[in-house]
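Give me the fold.
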Amino acid sequence: GMGKDALDREFLMVLCRSTNLSSFKVTLSNEKKKGFVEFPGGKTVSITEKGLEKVPEGLIAVPTNDEELQDFYKKTLNIKGTPAKIFDFLRDGKSRTFEELAEHCGYGENSNKSSFRVMLSTLTGAKAANVVVKDDNGLYRLADKCFLEKAK
């Protein structure tokens, strides 16, 4: 898991609407020099007390339950259409096969699943902060960061 308030660097990048990792790293290290953030893990970032004072109140709405947290990701990452159906189907934390996901979204046995595969990949990629993960058994589930207990 992550530190208490540490955020995954790539996720933070998405939140900040930044698409260039190297320029984002520069921004982060500048913030670190000012003492606003620190890096508890190699790829995690946490805001310091000093940094929190700088952030206007109400800007960081801390989710209090899984649903809020998941809604937050969905909204921030602009997940709509079929990817949203996949995301909602996985909100219960269960792992599902590619076929189950496809069928749930209306891609039955005889349909062309390549377009579905592309839509699924939009959730497993860095652009969507990897909100959906594929495990060693080839099953898909929402990433730990989508559940408060696991995200800590």
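The beta strands are 7-8, 37-38, 44-47, 132-134, 140-142.
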